[in-house]
Amino acid sequence: MAQITEEIIDGLSNFQTSIWDTVSVTTSENIGQAVTFGNPLTVSARVNDIQTEFSAQQLIIQFAMASHPDSFQSVLISNDTVLQLAKLATGVELEEIDENVISDVRPIAESIVQGLCIALGNVMIETIVATGLSIRYQSFQLPPNFARSLDIVRTQATVEGEGLSGSITWLVDGETANALLRLSTDMEMGNDAGAPIFASAPPTGQATGGFNPPQPGGAPASNAPHLPEVDAGSLEVLLDVPLEISVELGRVKMMVREVLDLGTGSIVEVDKAAGEPVDVMVNGRLVARGEVVVIEDNFGVRITEILNPNERFRLDGAA
């Protein structure tokens, strides 16, 4: 297995903030609430020490990049943080972790993995797809690539949000660390303009990760995100990713008995008045509004309004 040197740790530390900024934005958009991952600390850790430290049951997320299916990565979330995330998701304060809690936290865990894949894709200049994803509540079991190593790379980051103050641990093996550092170094050396791989970090005192910095006392300046500017060139790797576009006429809540009474010819009245714009959804998220048109024998939608990112976030949070 690849050796983890001090130079590798220093190199990986240089872009950890950008990685967790991406995870912050992705997770917050997906769950509709502001969550900030920050203050990352990257060190080399002995595998045996990791296994001993995380022997108690906790939320264990494991996945690999489809391009490197044998190099599993692990994300570990402590019990206290899991319960706080569950409260953030449900609004209910719980004292014990059970299957329902894990189910409530699963979308957040999946969003963390999605954010990591997007961030790693920025480094590797390719679309990163997670494979072999597992989300379980158990004691930490070494994946095969960790078991073959003496040392791995450990990154500890804080998790902050409304009523949320916890931590998260990200573990990668030496081969993954070497690949990330080598590719990021190659890109920097090959870039005549000296542009960084990630979007530029904001000046000191401005928000990072798409959120305003905490004010004295720990309260965030604003819950509304301000998404960072992204170099258009860094989006090229995403241009061929398929997205599902759907049009929503309206919504309605019904009792189970009312649903069971539905039959051929039944009319369901939705919450939109005739003539109101319909919602255009991309992967289940509202991005635009439009009016229904008929094109030959097919229905279509003429876009009349594109929502800006901040407005989309507020609408998702209110949904």
Quickly list its features.
single chain, 319 residues, alpha+beta, Chemotaxis protein chec, Surface presentation of antigens (SPOA), 2 domains, six-stranded antiparallel beta sheet, four-stranded antiparallel beta sheet, 9 helices, 10 strands
CATH superfamily of the largest domain: CheC-like
Work out the number of β strands: 10
Beta-strand level of the residues, as a percent range?
Answer: 25-35%
Order of helices and strands: HHEHEEHHEHEEHEHEEEH
- Oligomer kind: single chain
Uncertain residue segments = 184-234
Structure report:
The protein has 319 residues and is of the alpha+beta class. The protein folds into two domains: 233 residues, 3-Layer(aba) Sandwich (Chemotaxis protein chec); 74 residues, Surface presentation of antigens (SPOA) (Roll), CATH 2.30.330. 33% of the residues lie in helices and 28% in strands. The strands form two sheets. A six-stranded antiparallel beta sheet has the order 1-5-6-3-2-4. It has a four-stranded antiparallel beta sheet with strand order 7-8-9-10. A hairpin with a 2-residue loop joins β9 and β10. α1 packs across α7. About 16% of the residues have low confidence.
